[in-house]
Amino acid sequence: MASPWAYTLLCLLLAGTLARAALSPTAILSLGPDIIREKLMEKLEEHNATVILQQLPLLSTMQEESTGLLSSLLSGAVNNIIWFKVTSASLLQLQVQPSYYSQEMLVRIPMDMTAGFNTPLVKTILQLYLETEAQATIQVEADAGTPARLVIGDCSSNHRNVRISVLNQLSFLVNSLAEKVTNILTPALPSLVQDQLCPVILAAFNDMYANLLQLVTEPSVFNLGSVQFDLQTPVIDGDIIQLNLGATLLDSEKKVSKWFNQTKAFLTAPALDSAPVNFAVRHDLVNAVVAALLPPEEFVILLDYVVPSLADQLKLAINTFNEEAASQLEATQRLKIRTQKSPEVVLNQDGARVVQQIVLDFFANEQTHRPLFTLGIEADSEAEFYSSGNRFILNFKGINSDRIHLMNSGIAIFNPDLLKDVVTNILASVLIPNQNGKLRPGIEMSMMKALGFQEVTWSMTQVGGDWAGPAVQRGGWDGDVGTGEPPVDEEAAVPLGD
Ligand SMILES: *[C@@H]1O[C@H](CO)[C@@H](O)[C@H](O)[C@H]1NC(C)=O
Ligand SMILES: *[C@@H]1O[C@H](CO)[C@@H](O)[C@H](O)[C@H]1NC(C)=O
C-alpha cells in the first residue's frame, strides 16, 4: 500500500574506520515513530480492529455487572436492557513513545466508540460516547538459543483513560438511567477492550514485524548478482526500531561471493533527524557491489575511428616533444585501456569520489605488437548516487588524471604530464561512458517502495571518531561531510568523542 506521505526515505552510505571485535552490521534500517505508527495502524485495520470493537459484548457485560443491583425502578430498567451495542468505533492517532525501560517502547492506541442501548423504561435508544485506550509495549525478546526478535510485551487497557458521556439530554429520568449504566460500564470497559483487542494488537504487530523482515531480506538484485541482507539483531532505541542487518554478496548463480563478517568496518545508526526512515549501508558493501559491476577489464579502441578529434589532439601533443613519434601514428592507431582493479568509492572532505588505476598502451598502427609507450594513470571522478524507481544507481561524473606515470616507452623518455589533457579527454569520452553504461541498470531495492516511499535521498556520510556536529548530510555531496580520516583507536568499542 503506497503511503500518502511525501516524506523522504533517507539512505546513507557510511565509511567508518573504528576497529571493533564484535560483528558489526553491514546495513541498518532505522524506523522512526511515524512509520511504526503508520504500519501498525495499517495492520490493525487489516486485522479488523474496529470490527472487533463494534462487536464488544456490551449487553452480556451489563447483564453480568448489574445482577447484584438492589431492586428499584432504575435497577429494574438496567436489568432489563434488551439491546446494547457499539454502533460505530474508530481507532484514533496511535502514539509511539520511548519506554522507561531499555529495549522497550510504548504504543498507545486511543479509540472512541458510540454505543446505543434501550430498555422498556424509555422508547428512544439512548446513546453513549465511549473513549478509552489500549497500551502495548514492543520489546526485544532475546532468549538464549533463539535469535532476538521483537514482540508485544504487555498489552492492557487501564481505567485512567476511560471516559463515558451521555449523548442524549432528555429528561431527569433518562439521564439518571444513563448515569447508572455509565457507572456500571466505566470499570468494566477496560477489561472488555483488553480481552477483545489485545489479541488483535498482538496479531497485527506480529504481522507487521514479519512483513518488515520479509522486506529487508528481499534480495537486492543487480546485473551479475545480488545482495542478500539478513537480520542480525533488532534494537529499540527510544522511539526508534533499528534492524541491524548482515549481508552477503551472491554471484549470478546465487553462490556467495563475499561475506562481510571479517571486516573491521564499523557502522552506527545515524540520527534520523526528520526522515521517517533511514537505511544506512556500510562503505565496503558499496565497494563490493561496484567491484561486481565493474571487474577489472581491458579493451582496445581504434581512436581515429571512434573519436577522430582526440586522435588529432594526441598527435599534436606528441608532436610537442617527439616529432618523429607523432609522424609514425597511422589512422589505424590503437589504444588499449586496462583497469587494473575495480574502481573504489572513497569519502573525503569533497564528498564521495571514485578512484581508479588505469593503464593505457598506445600502438602507432594496427599491426604492431609493441606499444609506442605505456602510461599508468591514477584517476578520480565524482561519485553520484541517485535512485530511479526501485533502483539505486551510481554514476561517475567527470574524471581527473591525478598522476600519470610513464611505465614503458618505445620512444625517447618524455614527461607524461605533457599528455595529461589529451589522456583525460580520452578517458572521459571512452572509459567513463563505458563504465556508466555498466552501472546504469543499478541495484534494485524494493524496500523503499514496499515501505511506501516514492522519493529516496541518498547521502554519503563519514562516521568515526568525531560525533560532534551533524553526522548526516542531505541532498548532494558538496559541503561539510567530515574532516577526512577520523582518528582510529584499535581498542575502542564505541565511537570516540567527548
Ligand atoms: C477481516 O474481515 C474480513 C471481512 O470480514 C475478512 O475477510 C478477513 O479475513 C478479516 N481479517 C482477519 C485478519 O481476520
Ligand atoms: C564468515 O561466515 C561464513 C559463513 O558463516 C564462514 O564460512 C566464514 O568462515 C566466516 N568468516 C569469518 C572470518 O568469520
Tell me what you see in this structure.
The structure is a single chain. This protein has helices at 33-46, 49-54, 58-66, 73-79, 172-217, 283-293, 303-306, 308-319, 323-328, 420-439, 447-451, and strands at residues 8-15, 27-31, 83-91, 95-98, 104-118, 126-141, 149-156, 163-166, 220-222, 225-237, 240-251, 256-259, 277-282, 298-302, 334-339, 344-348, 351-363, 373-388, 391-409, 443-444, 455-462. The relative contact order is 0.16. It is rod-shaped, with a radius of gyration of 34 Å. The strands form 2 sheets. The protein has a 15-stranded mixed β-sheet that branches. Strands 3, 4, 5, 6, 7 and 8 form a 6-stranded antiparallel β-sheet that branches. Helix 8 (308-319) runs antiparallel to helix 10 (420-439). With 498 residues, it is α+β, with helices and mostly antiparallel strands. A hairpin with a 2-residue loop joins strand 16 and strand 17. The protein has 11 helices and 21 strands. It binds 2-acetamido-2-deoxy-beta-D-glucopyranose (2 copies).
